[in-house]
Amino acid sequence: MRVLAITGHDEVHRGSAQVEALEALTTWAFRQGKDWYLTEQVVANSSDEALKERFDAYRDSTAMGACLLLLLRRSAGSAAGEGVMGVLAVESREPRLYAPADLSVVGLLARLLSATLERAREYAELPAIALLERASRLRHRPGTRARAIRWAAGAGAAVLLLIFGRLPFRASGVCQVVPKERGILVARVAGLVKEVRVRQGAPVTAGEEVIRLDDRETLLAIEQQKNALAASEQRLRAYKATDPAREQEEQHNYSLIQAQIRLLEEQLQQTHILSPVTGIVLTRNLEDRVDSSVAEGEVLGEVAPLGELELEVAVPEDLIGYVTKDQAVSFLLSSFPGQTLETSVEHIGLASETRGQRNTFLVTCALKEPGEALRPGMTGWAHIHCGRRSAGFVLFRSAITYLQMRVFF
Questions:
Q1: Domain CATH number, residue 324
Q2: 238 & 188 share domain
Q3: Buried-state track 63-82, b at ≥16 Cβ within 10 A, e below 16
Q4: What gap in Å lies between CA 349 and CA 331, rounded to an integer?
Q5: Which backbone phi and psi does 327 adopt, to 5 degrees?
Q6: Average pLDDT, integer, range 281-298
Q7: Phi then psi for 39, rounded to 5 degrees?
Q8: Structural domain of residue 38, as residue ranges?
Q9: Neighbour count for residue 61 (Cβ, 10 Å)
Q10: Is residue 161 part of a domain?
Q11: CA atoms within 13 A on the CB side of 75
Q12: Where are the alpha helices (DSSP H) in 198-289?
């Protein structure tokens, strides 16, 4: 171990007895692999003769009565792995124990110093630092001074341009035309899909049957209950003149059968799934649901009403912080690749969605006059204009964000 710095001293005097004694003591602590709080009493009670020898030499040369040795460790997530980078030595002229508050402060100082040393090592290993050191060495070679000056002037001008130059900054993402309101096709009873009467893009009217569930069991149950109702009615006529008590009991049974028939007829109506609005069908491959079972309350499809449309832009998570309401939006649709359309931000989604293994937020933009050419489901690419920012930020935003999140955090 080598002593690199001593508080209160401008430089470390190599070869002095004080420095050599401190280096011997810190080297011993480094090899032991743990923190030490050394006082005369602690050393006297120790059976380690090497420790006693080093501490006596340290005390005689420095006139210090106690020394706290704390290992400076790399963090568990360090690229170089866990390990010890050095030793922090806190000295005291009085051979006494530090108070708990003093130990807490020194421990915090050791952790901060460890983090600083680790960041300094990572910084020194950056490729750009190696290039700067190489350029510094080249500057002193004969015949390269004028060239170095020209390179430095050009680099300085480029840096100034990156800092003070302004470029438009945009948050971009995939966009889709969607209806402002949607009609949902919901299975109100569980069953088996028997027939799908429409496909994606087909026009439908409100109340039109779109999907039919298998109703054979319901029809059979209704027929059985109607037969039971007819039999109950015959018994009522027979009991009417002969047995008033049985007649009253049968009348109650007759009412229950009627209620059961009404319930089954309602279930029969619910096997016919109707469009709640007039519009066009949005759901793809709806016909593939034939012969598949559905649960009560399951959503089977969507119908877009013929009315106002919106544009949804999927903005990546690392760009959503630059998007605000009323910012201008320009977009292109795959159906009209040569026509740039304009709109503005109306609403920013509060929850993220995963699209293509990436977190995105949906930004909604109003299409006040969509015209007949725009249809729900059309997709394209949109730019949200977030103002002008420095050229360096616009060109190297991804690299800057990476350094902020992975290196300097």
A1: 2.40.30.170
A2: yes
A3: ebebbbbbbbbbeeeeeeee
A4: 19
A5: -70, 145
A6: 88
A7: -130, 170
A8: 17-124
A9: 15
A10: no
A11: 14
A12: 216-242, 244-270
CB distance 51 to 93 below 8 Å = no
Sign of CA dihedral 116, 118, 122, 124: positive
Q: Which of 274, 302, 330 is the last residue of a domain?
A: 302
Q: What is the CB-side half-sphere exposure of residue 159 using CA atoms within 13 A?
A: 6
Nearest CA to 262 among 208, 221, 214? Answer: 221
* Same domain (yes/no): 249, 318: no
Which of these, 192, 238, 182, lies nearest to 215 by C-alpha position?
192
Give the tens place of pLDDT for each residue, 313-347: 999 998 999 999 999 999 998 888 778 889 999 99
Q: Are residues 295 and 344 in the same domain?
A: no
Sheet strands side by side (includes 203-204): 183-186, 299-305, 279-281, 203-204
Do 280 and 317 belong to one domain?
Answer: no
**Length of the chain counted residue by residue:** 409
Neighbours of 280 (CB within 10 A): 20
Burial letters 245-276, b for 16+ CB under 10 A, else e: eebeebeeebeebeebbeebeebbebbebbbb
**CATH number of residue 41's parent domain:** 3.30.450.40
What stretches of 9-64 show up as alpha helix (H) in DSSP? 17-32, 40-45, 49-62
Backbone angles phi, psi at 207, to 5 degrees: 90, -5
Determine the pLDDT at residue 128.
47
Instruction: In whole angstroms, give the CA distance from residue 296 to residue 267.
Output: 11
| pLDDT classification of 99: cutoffs 50, 70, 90 | low
pTM value is 0.46
Q: What is the pLDDT of residues 170-224, one digit of tens each?
A: 999 999 988 887 788 888 888 899 999 988 888 888 889 999 999 888 899 989 9
Cβ atoms of 106 and 98 within 8 Å: the answer is: yes
* pLDDT score of 364 more than 90: yes
Q: Which of 17, 92, 97 is nearest to 58 (CA)?
A: 17
Our count of domains for the chain comes to: 3
**Contact criterion met (CB below 8 Å) for 261 and 165:** no
d(CA 284, CA 307): 21
Residue ranges with strand state E in 180-230 = 183-186, 191-196, 203-204, 209-213
Same domain, 327 and 387: yes
- Residues 189 and 296 reside in one and the same domain: yes
Tokens of 27: 């080297």
